[in-house]
Design brief:
Elements lengths: L1 H20 L2 E8 L4 H16 L4 E7 L5 H12 L5 E5 L5 E3 L1 H8 L2 E4 L4 E3 L3 H5 L5 H21 L4 H9 L3 E3 H6 L5 E2 L3 H7 L4 E4 L2 E4 L6 E5 L3 H9 L2 H20 L5 H18 L5 H19 L5 H16 L12 H27 L13 E4 L9 E4 L2 E6 L9 E8 L2 E6 L2
Parallel strand pairs: 1-2, 1-11, 2-3, 3-5, 4-6, 5-8, 14-16
Antiparallel strand pairs: 6-7, 9-10, 12-13, 12-15, 13-14, 15-16
Helix pairs in contact: 2-3, 2-10, 3-4, 6-7, 11-12, 13-14, 13-15, 14-15
């Protein structure tokens, strides 16, 4: 009986030890434009893999491209990782274009799902800025050297890598495997995990043979902060936040003490400024937008018969269209956002202008100005030197350019201190 108990104890100990020592494979998902929030997410995931001594990190990638700086941050982290990094272009229909091609080539193991493609890594798509011929040549040569260096370090096809930059070529998963661009084609994540078992990879600390059987797959998702920053990095969201911020501040300035519009406007502006600093913004276009707002405000102060409003509309629309003036369509504003916002802005300031005009033309209802135009009755005879009238039951001193008899109706023409200038009512 004691022997059986001892055997069970040893068995449970070994079983628990195996579970404790079992390594993990971390899975990160990058879906969309490569920008600072994605770079931060991937770098943090790789660092966590180092901390827990994970067996490997799988980056499931689907991207049309993105910012050069964010792409280089991710590539740098992958190239210097002690933990094997597998970049998996998935699911079916996904792509690793532009910056995604660099990231895929930098992986220790590059894999693709059926129905995916990789390539089109031209520097225009990466940088997102307009360049003259000489500058474009410099940027292209730099990108070529960089991608060839990555491909050479991982033992991949450098000729294909160069053409992906210079000629913007793109390949399907079968073509990429045949040309030595990737290592594996896998239908899904579980198939990939089985395929990498026993693969030998070279990390910065030496060679390592992957053991992916019986490993725990831990999917690391973006936390709330990263999801929020990812959401804010959308050019359309940045533009909308900027407009909300401007409206809020204008409301607060026109209605001091309202508080709520000012608070919302300030928060929106701060969030918009974060978004804009992660995007390739055209500052001249931003200046046009603010000039348009200034012209709208000036229309409220000065009568220009609509000229200031027209100028404001032109500046606002042109600035909105040019705000992300880039060759990269990933960072351009959608007209479905620009047009409605522009229309709402024009209507907003048109209403303010109309209200201001009505207020200007409205007859005063308080103060001495309200007396002008009112009818009264002469209490005494009135001439150019003296007289008394009753207005609203109040007795006022009055004068008139023409003689007015007692009890005749009069109309107030002017208020001079405490004396009213009146004329005979017709």
């Amino acid at each position: 009986m004691k022997k059986i108990f001892l055997i069970l104890t040893i068995f449970l100990f070994l079983l628990l030890s195996t579970k404790v020592l079992a390594k993990e494979i971390l899975v990160l998902t990058v879906d969309g434009v490569i920008h600072p929030p994605h770079a931060e997410y991937v770098i943090k995931g790789i660092k966590k893999a180092h901390e827990i001594k994970a067996e490997a990190v799988i980056i499931q990638l689907d991207t049309p491209g993105g910012l050069d700086t964010s792409m280089r941050d991710i590539v740098k982290e992958i190239l210097n990782s002690q933990v094997p990094i597998i970049v998996y272009v998935a699911p079916k229909g996904a792509r690793a274009a532009s910056a995604g091609a660099f990231i895929t080539l930098s992986a220790h193991i590059a894999a693709m799902s059926p129905g995916t493609n990789i390539g089109a890594a031209s520097p225009v798509a990466i940088g997102g800025e307009k360049m003259d011929k000489k500058m474009a040549e410099k940027v292209t040569n730099d990108a070529v050297a960089y991608i060839k260096s990555i491909a050479q370090q991982r033992g991949r096809n450098t000729e294909w890598a160069e053409l992906a930059v210079r000629k913007s070529i793109s390949s399907t998963e079968t073509e990429a495997l045949k040309k030595g661009v990737i290592d594996i084609i896998a239908d899904d994540l579980q198939t990939l995990i089985k395929e990498i078992h026993g693969k030998k990879v070279k990390t910065v600390v030496g060679e390592k043979i992957l053991s992916s059987r019986d490993t725990k797959v831990n999917e690391i998702k973006m936390n709330f902060r990263e999801r929020l920053l990812n959401f804010l990095s959308n050019p359309n969201i940045a533009y909308i936040l900027l407009m909300i911020g401007i409206y809020g501040i204008i409301f607060e300035l026109s209605n001091p003490g309202a508080i709520f519009p000012g608070v919302i406007g300030a928060i929106s502006l701060i969030l918009a400024f974060y978004s804009l600093q992660t995007l390739p913004i055209n500052y001249a276009a931003a200046g046009l937008i603010f000039l348009g707002i200034v012209l709208f405000i000036l229309e409220l102060k000065f009568t220009s018969y609509g000229l200031l409003t027209l100028g404001g509309i032109i500046c606002f629309v042109l600035g909105s269209i040019m705000l992300f003036d880039t060759a990269n369509p990933l960072f351009k504003l959608s007209l479905s956002v620009v047009i409605p916002v522009s229309i709402v802005t024009v209507i907003f300031f048109a209403l303010l202008l109309r209200l201001a005009y009505k207020a200007h033309k409205r007859k005063p209802v308080t103060g001495v100005e309200e007396l002008i135009g009112l009818k009264g009755v002469a209490k005494t005879d009135i001439d150019s030197h003296s007289g008394m009238v009753v207005i609203h039951g109040e007795l006022w001193q009055a004068i008139s350019d023409t003689e007015i008899k007692k009890n005749e109706e009069v109309i107030v023409e002017e208020v001079k201190g405490l004396t009213l200038k009146v004329r005979k009512a017709e």
